[in-house]
Write a structure and sequence with these properties.
alpha/beta; Rossmann fold; 2 domains; seven-stranded mixed β-sheet; 8 helices; 11 strands; globular
């Protein structure tokens, strides 16, 4: 992304970078921006050329909004970008969730280990997992494909944009948040997903009695989540609840501890 921004600043609307390789081949990176129905689209195309063949061309959409973008491009641009993302997600979900009324939702699905296993063990539930990192979503989709699971989908999406795009007829019946970024520095606490506004957004899309399952290895984020859920009118803390489904994940294997918080949607 940093290379992309640098090249676009230097070369404008369309940038091409070619690096020679031994044996007569080369690596070519092309960066371009096009105007579409939902606004500007930034794409990064790469291919590896050899003397005898050309690799498959791959497109990577650079959709995720990060603070540096807002600082450089301005608040109006950031809001327009967010609106475009929500509109695109709304169209995707209208098709992907057609006929669904209740879903099991994992916010931050990682590589899909947990939700793919959960979906296989719960064929009567329709599951949706989201993550911001492209390669994580791609790995999750591979698990869904290899497992021939027709009751789970994985999408690249930012959490609040996903919730805003969710069809009104679809309700969250189970919500799982496993090992989210704890943003341990105090100055970064504002970036934590668990806050009053986001809990309200979750509650507005949750069915009555829906359960929220939260797991972290960070003691401070554990206490923070309990305090925010306890203070929110839309949720009721539930002590002494057993985690409903265990499956080792890529991230959990790296954790030294685990702390669970449970809450139900207030009816």
């Amino acid at each position: 992304m940093a290379v992309t921004r640098h090249l676009r600043r230097q070369l404008g609307q369309h940038a091409v970078l070619t690096l020679p390789m031994s044996g007569g081949g080369g690596w070519r990176l092309e960066i371009t921006r096009t105007q579409g129905e939902t606004g500007n689209r930034i794409g990064c195309y790469g291919d590896i050329k050899t003397a005898s063949s050309v690799a498959v061309l791959t497109l990577f959409d650079l959709n995720h909004l990060v603070p540096e973008h807002t600082k450089v491009m301005g608040k109006d641009w950031a809001e327009a970008r967010r609106d475009a993302n929500v509109a695109r997600l709304r169209a995707t979900l209208a098709t992907a969730l057609a006929g669904q009324t209740d879903i099991t939702f994992e916010l931050g699905c990682g590589h899909g280990h947990w939700l793919a296993a959960y979906a296989a063990a719960h064929p009567g539930e329709y599951c949706v997992g989201i993550d911001l990192i492209t390669h994580r979503v791609e790995r999750s989709v591979r698990k869904q494909t290899l497992g021939k699971l027709d009751n789970v989908i994985f999408l690249k999406a930012e959490a609040t944009e996903f919730l805003e795009a969710l069809p009104d007829a679809v309700r969250l019946t189970k919500i799982f948040i496993l090992y989210p970024d704890p943003w341990p520095k105090k100055k970064h606490h504002k970036n934590r997903f668990i806050n009053a506004a986001n809990l309200g957004l979750l509650a507005s899309h949750a069915a009555g009695g829906a359960r929220l399952h939260f797991r972290t290895d960070n003691a401070d984020y554990f206490a923070w989540t309990g305090e925010h859920l306890g203070a929110h009118a839309g949720w009721r803390l539930e002590p002494e609840v057993v985690w409903p489904f265990e499956q080792k994940t890529f991230f959990e294997e790296r954790m030294k501890d685990r702390r669970d918080v449970f809450a139900r949607r207030a009816e």
